[in-house]
């Protein structure tokens, strides 16, 4: 046992143990402190990151709002000008209705409609003014109006008419949404393939179905369209790509704002896309009465225009109210304007004129 | 003209004229002029006609009506009305009566003057 006491290693061990214990305790304390500090730093970091993200988000929203309000006022001016121009064109069309200029005016009218639609679409994305106040209009007229706002409108065929009309406030948004759908349909199908529109009455309202014979959409495009068409879809105008694709975003905003629904997830029997617009009952009304019923123009006062009987040949007979003569009666009371001598001299001059004319003709070139 | 700042006051027709004719060119034959008279035929009217064509047929059902009158009632450019009329008459819903040739429209007093002149000279 004594040789152990003399062993320096034992003494070293005895001296080293508390030392080591102290070191270990100190180490552990330091580690705990570091851990605590790390946690504090981490929480500060998270806090900073959070506030950074928030301020970026806020800045983005502010930038978006600024962009939107700038675009909105710019578009409002353009929309106003397009409307004004359309009025001017309408006036010119009435004025030159019989003139060959009319054909050109119709083309200008068409271009102006497209221009107006583009401005309207951007305005809608910026929560702006949609435009014209409209009276109630038949579904057929709304569809035709939409048709007139796209470039290749002659390819659009409207297959059916419905007996429903839309309330005035729904006319313009539905027409614009349909126009965007038709624009897509004509853009993504062969240049000569027709686009069919059918209208169907369903328990919930009226469905307007647009079928194209295009290439359809792939899954990614469908996903994007569904996202934009859903009521929660974002209307971030800075995230529409380059070049921006307005179509579905505009339709989504309009559908959410006015309460109709649009889906493009089925495929048409021609292989392309089938877009279905469901107009709910709230936006529908019965057919409007024409403003003034077109009456056959009879100026014969109180006399009701009786339906004339037909001739044996099938032509309608028109009962004449006045004189049938187309040669105005000579006014017997009117004094002759010229004396006989004057008349004679005029006639002589006339005869002389025709004579000289004939001789000039034979001198000038040989009549054959 | 109102200013662009007040565009709500403006209103234009919902359906533009070029949509009514579906972009077709205006008829260049001289089948219709302002005083051509048209009326409905006995042929029954189909239900799928455009509203504008229905209105034209309604207008004409009372008797003969001139192209200018129809355009006035429809508030459409005359060229557009002519397209509608040529469609309707091609399908047999309208009967067209050519206007009286202008050569028949002779003033009696003019004839009288010619006669007077001839008599003064030769008579």
Automatic annotation (TrEMBL), chain A:
Keywords: Kinase, Phosphoprotein, Transferase. The keyword Protein biosynthesis does not apply. One of its GO terms (molecular function) is protein histidine kinase activity. Its EC number is 2.7.13.3. Gene3D superfamilies: Histidine kinase-like ATPase, C-terminal domain. It catalyses: ATP + protein L-histidine = ADP + protein N-phospho-L-histidine. Residues 288-341 are annotated as: Disordered. It is an enzyme of class 2 (transferase). The keyword Kinase applies. GO terms for biological process: phosphorelay signal transduction system. GO terms for cellular component: plasma membrane. Residues 174-281 form the Histidine kinase/HSP90-like ATPase domain. This is histidine kinase. It comes from Actinacidiphila paucisporea. The lineage of its organism: Bacteria, Bacillati, Actinomycetota, Actinomycetes, Kitasatosporales.
UniProtKB/TrEMBL annotation, chain B:
This is DUF742 domain-containing protein. It comes from Actinacidiphila paucisporea. InterPro entries: DUF742 (IPR007995).
């Amino acid at each position: 046992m004594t040789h152990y006491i003399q062993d320096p290693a034992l003494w070293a061990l005895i001296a080293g143990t508390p030392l080591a214990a102290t070191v270990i305790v100190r180490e552990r304390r330091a580690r705990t402190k570091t851990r605590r500090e790390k946690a504090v730093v981490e929480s500060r970091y998270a806090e900073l990151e959070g506030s950074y993200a928030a301020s970026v988000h806020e800045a983005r929203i502010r930038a978006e709002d600024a962009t939107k309000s700038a675009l909105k006022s710019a578009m409002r001016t353009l929309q106003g000008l397009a409307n004004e121009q359309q009025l001017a064109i309408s006036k010119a069309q009435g004025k030159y209705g019989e003139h060959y200029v009319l054909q050109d005016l119709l083309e200008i009218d068409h271009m102006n409609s497209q221009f107006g639609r583009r401005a309207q679409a951007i305005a809608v994305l910026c929560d702006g003014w949609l435009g014209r106040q409209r009276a109630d209009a038949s579904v057929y007229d709304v569809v035709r109006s939409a048709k007139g706002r796209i470039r290749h409108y002659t390819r659009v065929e409207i297959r059916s008419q419905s007996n429903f009309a839309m309330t005035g406030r729904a006319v313009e948004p539905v027409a614009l949404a349909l126009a965007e759908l038709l624009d897509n349909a004509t853009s993504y199908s062969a240049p000569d393939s027709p686009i069919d529109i059918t209208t169907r009455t369903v328990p919930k309202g009226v469905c307007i179905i647009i079928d194209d014979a295009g290439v359809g959409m792939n899954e990614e495009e469908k996903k994007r369209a569904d996202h934009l068409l859903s009521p929660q879809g974002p209307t971030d105008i800075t995230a529409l790509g380059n070049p921006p694709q307005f179509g579905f975003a505009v339709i989504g905003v309009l559908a959410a704002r006015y309460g109709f629904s649009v889906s493009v997830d089925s495929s048409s029997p021609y292989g392309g896309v089938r877009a279905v617009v469901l107009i709910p009952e709230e936006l529908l009304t019965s057919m409007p009465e024409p403003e003034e019923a077109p009456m056959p123009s009879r100026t014969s006062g109180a006399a009701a225009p009786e339906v004339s009987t037909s001739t044996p040949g099938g032509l309608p007979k028109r009962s004449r109210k006045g004189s049938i003569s187309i040669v105005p009666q000579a006014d017997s009371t009117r004094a002759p304007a010229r004396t006989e001598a004057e008349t004679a001299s005029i006639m002589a001059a006339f005869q002389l004129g025709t004579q000289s004319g004939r001789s000039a003709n034979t001198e000038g070139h040989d009549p054959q | 003209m109102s200013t662009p700042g007040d565009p709500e006051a403006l209103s234009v027709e919902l359906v533009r004229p070029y949509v009514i004719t579906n972009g077709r060119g205006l008829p260049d034959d001289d089948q219709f002029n302002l005083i051509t008279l048209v009326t409905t035929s006995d042929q029954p009217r189909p239900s799928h006609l455009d509203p504008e064509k229905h209105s034209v047929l309604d207008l004409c059902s009372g008797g003969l009506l001139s192209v200018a009158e129809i355009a006035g009632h429809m508030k459409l450019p005359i060229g557009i009305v002519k397209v509608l009329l040529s469609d309707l008459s091609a399908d047999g819903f309208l009967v067209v009566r050519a206007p009286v040739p202008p050569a028949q429209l002779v003033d009696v007093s003019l004839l009288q003057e010619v006669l007077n002149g001839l008599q003064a000279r030769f008579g």
